[in-house]
Structure to design on (394 residues):
């Protein structure tokens, strides 16, 4: 496996590696060490981690990975050493940043190559602040990233995507063999909801409230501003409503200003980023989970991991009408859907779950059942195992 950042943490990489190790494979992971203090080789959870020490400026150059080849020139020597010294038999590239180096070197190795697309990187880059800056517009080209993404999808032996909608998107865009695609969503392992520490302080804090929880990045394209604005409609109907946001972004000052301007301090908790070990307690403390992301090609073809986290504890989920998450919620009847960016729509769905206890109970039961029988990592990762079984047979 080849990752363009430090490890740990990376839940997807860890989950995939653990699944493959349990299936009888040996997993070696090439990753970066920007600090110069980590062990160059280390066994973590059975993963043979091999770190390449990188100067910090290399991180900022990753945005130029398909503009200036310097980023890839810098990686070639260490990556070549990693593959050849460890007698690697198959390559698994995580995302697009480092793919150019791997595909180039593999012209000589001719190893089976799996491209694991964690997200639609060329599309989501269009929303990054540094890409939209004057300098970014001159140096970073999402269009060029897309060109290479399509090229590598065609060249890869297998391609992993996170949703069926992502698979259909690429099949519509490209003339390529649909059988090379495997869908492996970013779900949660059973241990997330079976083995955790419970914070009574957090649970007690919201016991008297009807609590709506948002976990994750709080960037504005994720619909958090519309969620807060829904309070104008909700407070008269649900006086004890509380919105809790666990996460952060560079635009948090916009949210804080919005709360203060409307005097909603008693109805909104902007908690900032919290220890991952506290997530289960925040979910237990809430009544409803929300994923209000705006529609775009990236959001339409991916799942927010928070959805699976909410469902694991039987919390009905309110989602915007991005197709991937809408299809999931409707298939398992475990939440409600509103039109993206609709403040009134968010308020309506929250009110519906507050007032209709029969509906709430049914959606809650369906949520738990969906995770236990269909949507946990141990079930959804079977396609990953099948992929490597096919490579083994070759």
């Amino acid at each position: 496996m080849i990752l363009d950042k430090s490890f740990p943490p990376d839940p997807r990489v860890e989950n995939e590696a653990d699944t493959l190790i349990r299936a009888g494979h040996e997993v070696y992971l090439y990753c970066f060490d920007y600090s110069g203090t980590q062990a160059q080789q280390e066994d973590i959870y059975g993963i043979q981690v091999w770190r390449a020490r990188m100067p910090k400026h290399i991180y900022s150059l990753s945005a130029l990975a398909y503009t200036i080849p310097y980023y890839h020139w810098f990686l070639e020597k260490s990556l070549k050493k990693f593959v050849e010294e460890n007698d690697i038999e198959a390559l698994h590239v995580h995302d697009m940043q480092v793919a150019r180096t791997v595909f180039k070197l593999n012209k000589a190795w001719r190893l089976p190559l799996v491209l694991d697309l964690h997200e639609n990187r060329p599309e989501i880059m269009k929303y990054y602040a540094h890409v939209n800056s004057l300098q970014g517009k001159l140096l970073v080209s999402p269009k060029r990233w897309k060109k290479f993404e399509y090229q590598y999808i065609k060249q890869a032996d297998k391609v992993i995507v996170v949703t069926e909608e992502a698979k259909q998107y690429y099949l519509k865009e490209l003339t390529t063999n649909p059988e090379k695609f495997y869908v492996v969503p970013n779900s949660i392992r059973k241990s997330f909801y079976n083995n955790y520490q419970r914070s009574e302080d957090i649970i007690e804090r919201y016991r008297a409230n009807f609590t709506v929880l948002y976990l994750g990045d709080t960037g504005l394209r994720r619909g958090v501003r519309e969620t807060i604005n829904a309070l104008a409609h909700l407070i008269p109907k649900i006086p004890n409503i509380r919105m809790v946001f666990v996460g952060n972004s560079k635009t948090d000052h916009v949210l804080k200003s919005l709360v203060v301007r409307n005097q909603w301090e008693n109805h909104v908790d902007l908690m900032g980023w919290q220890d991952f070990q506290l997530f289960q307690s925040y979910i237990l403390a809430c009544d409803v989970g929300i994923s209000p992301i705006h529609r775009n090609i990236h959001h339409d073809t991916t799942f927010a991991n928070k959805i699976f986290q909410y469902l694991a504890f039987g919390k009905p989920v309110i989602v915007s009408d991005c197709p991937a998450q809408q299809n999931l919620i409707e298939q398992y009847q475990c939440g409600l859907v509103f039109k993206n960016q609709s403040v009134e729509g968010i308020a309506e769905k929250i009110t519906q779950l507050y007032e209709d206890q029969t509906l709430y109970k049914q959606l809650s039961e369906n949520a738990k059942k969906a995770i236990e029988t269909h949507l946990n990592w141990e079930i959804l990762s079977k396609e990953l195992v099948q992929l490597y079984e096919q490579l083994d047979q070759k």
In short: The chain has a mean pLDDT of 95.
